Structure formats: C-alpha cells, structure tokens
Amino acid sequence: MACIHDADEIIPRLWLGSGEAAESPFFLADHKITHVLSVIFHTVKIPLESVQQKVISIMDQPGEDLLGHLNEAFSFIDEGLESGGAVLVHCAMGVSRSSATVIAYIMNKEKCTLNEALLKVKEKHSQTCPNEGFMEQLRLFEAMGCQCNPGNSLFKQHRLAHLAEEIQMRTDLPEDLLASDPHTADDGSNDALYRCRKCRRALFRQSSVIAHSQGKGLSSFGWHKQVKQQGQSPQVKVTGQGGRGEHASSSCTSVFIEPVSWMESFLLGVNEGKISCPKCSSRLGSFNWSGQQCSCGVWMTPAFQVHQNRVDRMAPIVR
C-alpha cells in the first residue's frame, strides 16, 4: 500500500514514488532519504540540504532515450545504498519514468527477467506502468544481459536511432559509435573480416554485424511507424557475445552493420544515401537513418545495409 506521499519501498532502502514525495521534508526525514534521483523534465527542489540529488532530464514520451541514462542512474543509486543511506527514485507521478528506472535496476542487480522485475516492483508500487517505448527499451536491456555496455552492437544501434532526428545538423558522430576501420587500424582481433569483392579492401569486421531474427525487428525500435505499419511483432535475437551476430541467413541478401569510421563523411547532413567502397567507389549498399527493410522482412532503424554479393567474408585466422 502506498504511503501518504505516494512512495513505496521496493527493496530495503530503495523507494519509488512521485514528485510530491521528493518535495516533502517530512517524507525525506521520516524515511532517512539521503539520495534523490529525479527522472523528470522540470525542476524539482529538494527541501533538505543534506539530501543529494541527481536529475535525469527526460520526458514521459515513448521516443525518449531511457537506456542511455541507466548507467549513471545505477551508479547514483549504488552510491546511496552502499553508503548506508536510502534512495528515492521519482518522476512526476511515480508511474512511468521512475518505475522503468527501478525495474531496470532490479534486473541489473538480481539478473532477473523483465517480467520478474516488473511483477516485483508492481507488488510494492501498484501504479507502476512504464510507457510502451520504455517497455521496449527494457526488452532490449534484457536482451543485452541486463547491462548497457557501450561496446554492445545493439546498444550502439539504439543510440544511433536517437541521433537520427538531428543528423542533418550534426558535423560529426560520437567516436564511440563508429567501429574502427580494419584497413587502417589493426586491433589484433581474430574476427572474421569483410572485404570489397572488387578491390579487396578491408571494410568491416564480423563484430560490426548486427544480428536480427528473420522477419522481425529489433524491439528497441518498435514504436517507429514503419515497424507498426508492417504489423511485425518486434523481438530481439542476440547471437553470441554482446549481441554480435553470426553471418546472415541464406534468406538475407544483405547484412546490417554499425557504421565504420570510413563511412562518417557521407553519413552526415543527409537522411539517406549510398554506401560505396572508400578505395574503388564500388557500390556496396545504402544507408537510411529512418530505416530500411531486409529481404527477410526485418525493419532496421537506422539502417546501414551492405549487400552480400558485393563483399567477401574472410574466416578468422586460426592462431
């Protein structure tokens, strides 16, 4: 049962609630709150100077990026709990943003499924109801092993999707979202390598290929109208470590990859275009920040699509 200030203790010393609780000196003092995580777009003033506050400024909209903020949220919650304090996570009503954050925290700490964490939080806080966009991100979070690893291909794809709306105004891309060019940077990887079929230039490694289930889109992008119009039931299929896929199925005539550093110059300022070999200019495929469909039916957003008949996959060297 919720307390008078609309907040509930989910696990010992971790509270989930509304902005009303965060602004109540009586609630904060009575429950010995030392840290307040405000997952909210507008300013919330904490009435006790002794309480530490961290603000994650997002709106309760399906297209907002929750996953990109989870690592900082987890660190702040851990700081409060490990110091012996108590933490309140709140949004405006304690329904969507803060609930999704606490669900993700439970998934990460207890290594449980989304359904298990959702039921656990709902049992203590009945108002829990993340919007569908956040639920899709939590499904992706589950597929990534309940952690947001910056090197995970699926996580990079999620972050790239949130750059799509501003791509025409950007002058560069975050370096950590670009895979290294295997032609100029030898990272010592024993990973399969894709080469241009015409000139043999090294283009990208197998670790840059984003796996997908045939005919099903990545759950993290399910709110995009292209996916919904096709009536797909979004799912995530993770093959191998960190969401890195094996070579594409025979029904797929293309592979989807994370962008490689040699691609950056022609990805900026436009929504779509060709992908050509940086050495011989042979057409390799195409890109579209709004998404493209694979021959198997999957819709990927954004899409960096390379046709398999334009490249050769070289097996890794056994050492």
Please give a quick description of this structure.
By secondary structure, this protein is α+β, with helices and mostly antiparallel strands.
In words, what does this structure look like?
- The chain is of the alpha+beta class and 319 residues long.
- 24% of the residues lie in helices and 19% in strands.
- A 5-stranded mixed sheet has the order 1-2-5-3-4. Strands 8-13-10-9 form a 4-stranded antiparallel sheet, with no helix packed on it. Strands 7-6-14 form a 3-stranded antiparallel sheet, with no helix packed on it.
- Helix 4 (97-110) crosses helix 5 and helix 4 (97-110) runs parallel beside helix 6.
Which helices and strands, and how do they pair?
Elements: E1 7-11, E2 14-17, H1 19-22, H2 25-30, E3 33-39, E4 52-56, H3 70-82, E5 86-90, H4 97-110, H5 114-124, H6 132-143, H7 153-161, E6 193-196, E7 202-205, H8 225-229, E8 254-256, H9 264-267, E9 272-276, E10 283-288, E11 292-293, E12 299-300, E13 303-307, E14 311-314
Parallel strand pairs: 2-5, 3-4, 3-5
Antiparallel strand pairs: 1-2, 6-7, 6-14, 8-13, 9-10, 10-13, 11-12
